[in-house]
Amino acid sequence: MNALLMAPVLIPIFTAMLCIALWKWRYAQRCVSIVGAFALLGASASLLISIDTMPELNGVFATQLGGWEAPFGITFVADRFAAIMVTLAGLVGACTVVYSVGAIDKKRESAGYHALVQALLASVCGAFLTGDIFNMYVWFEIMLMSSFVLLTLGGERGQLEGALKYVALNLLSSSIFLAGIGLLYGLTGTLNMADLSVKLAALNETDTKVVSALSLLFMVGFGIKAATFPFFFWLPASYHTPPSVISALFGGLLTKVGVYALVRTFTLLFVGNYAFTHTLFLWIAGFTMLAGVLGAIAQKDVRRILSFTIVSHIGNMIMGLGIFGVAMHRASITTGVESEVLRGAGLFALAGTVFYALHHIVVKTNVFFITGIIEKMRGTTQLAKLGGLYHQRPFLSSLFFISAMSLAGIPVLSGFWSKLTLVRAGLQAETYAIVGVSLGVSVLTMYILTRIWAQAFWAPIPEDDPEQGGVARDNENREPNPRGFAWMMSPVVVLTGLTLALGLGASHTFALTMRAAEQLAGNESYISTVLGAPEPDPRRLVEFHDPIESELHAQIDDHLESGGH
Amino acid sequence: MEALLAVAIGILYAASLYLMLRRSVVKLILGLSLFGHASNLLILTSGKLLKGRPPLIGDDAHALFGEPAVDYADPIPPALILTAIVIGFAILAFSAVLVKRTVQEVGTDDMDQMNNTDLEAAS
Fold first, then answer.
1. Which residue among A67, A70, A104, A467 is least crowded, i.e. fewest CB within 10 A of its CB?
2. Looking at the domain assignment, is residue B62 inside a domain?
3. Structure pTM?
4. What is Dmax (Cα atoms) for chain B?
5. CATH of the domain at B98
6. In this complex, do A158 and B66 lie within 8 Å of one another by their Cβ atoms?
7. What is the extent of the structural domain holding B43?
């Protein structure tokens, strides 16, 4: 079990090292990378299955690295939420590596593309699995470093300009996160998240304002990484600049690491002042959704539109977190049935967030993949220059249609169920304003995606040659060769099938996310698994006696007593 | 000592934000690096500032926390800072190369000119 918990980090790290060792052999790197990615997928999926099903684990598994006991060493811990996210990282990793066989050009592949993707996967899994807040910072930095290089790989002008904004804002967010960690350590004297949860709960009784102010540093730090409302500008400025396969990897995984960190810290650590922090989240969520969707409407390029819709979907996930906090706060000031209903709504909201993240990773990666295929075929992704795709490739078009409708939240597909869960939770918790915003944004998302469908797929090919004005990224390979096309199509088919499966088997998916949400809201199993048995009172250590020494003392006492007679 | 360091951290944060808001990319990177330094000093200060104590707990100590308070220098904040400095150095090196390449490619170091990725025409 220990090995299984570490595998999602170790497998990609060793794969990356092997890829670097095979620097000169491009095909060998490719094979190693594919094998490594599928091994990661297998390991992470079996981690999720064993965490979810083995009754003796109680849904959480922790290991103490180097044998140092919990608050002193670094802990790795997987609960259901972490395991779900790791499995998705494995899935996106495997799909990306397969897709890139057909999509990535020789120049980038020789420049260490595979090693960077594997390093990125390792850091994402590390950030999901670590139970130590400073260790999480380190994984974030590894993630940033590999994403910086992936983003600039190739060195085109647009990439460099986009990367500059991405680098600047993400460095700022890391520094804010680091400052937050420093103050947190000064306040509590620990970095272990389970221990922090216990210590902060005690501290919150006396210093609510200090803890709330500190939580804002984390809200801003993670908010920049998750691309929430006032901080999202780096995302649409940079995500459309690298090759589509890299956009897909980023759009699917990276912002979700920010969301994961927000959910983790604001369900485990900063839970003392729901009324303040989580109401703030509702505001952030509303503006994030609106800003993303309105930005997307103004765009005329498929990849830019999709980048902006990432922002609006992040808003939906944050909304679940906000509703959870507000419902918990109201539950604490009411009694009886009403309180129970509100608690239920809070759980629903968290389950909605997990479900949404799950659905969004699968679908967003997929639409970016399909956009990449379109770009390969036509050399452009500008709506005005596209057209007639349905006539040319009906199968690919129907796959896009399913994913787009899932993204918009049409019934039976996965997007619908995750939105339904969030909306139902919002109505139960009586947070009507945010539900209204969310539904309005869904309609606008629908409009945006039907516009892509109508202009790029249904409309006839524009009169002037579509290749005339388009800036082709890969001039040498306009009509993809059949083998490369097959490599690119297979992950798209798999991911679309998964979207359908998640939606059609919604009861199973929902039950899993609900179990994850119960753990997130409860926290007891997480804390007790990491810290072991209930923590002994530190003062008890003073009374601890060495048995040999006690024996000695007893003998001396006896001797003195007998000597006294 | 805490008060002095608090002022120093404040000045560093202010200076770094000022640099970041300038239009030159070089100043942006300098600002980010100063921001990291300020965060490192903040970590140092928020751990206890004790002069001349060893980071070791003596044999005679009965407890790590609680009464009686053990007067030892906490080695964790310096360890955190050391990690952060190493990471910060690597990222600064990367940023410096990125700035050089960007300036070469775009032909200017003015942030206001680097809006191609936000404009429709350049995609």
1. A67
2. no
3. 0.89
4. 73
5. 1.10.287
6. no
7. 1-51+75-106
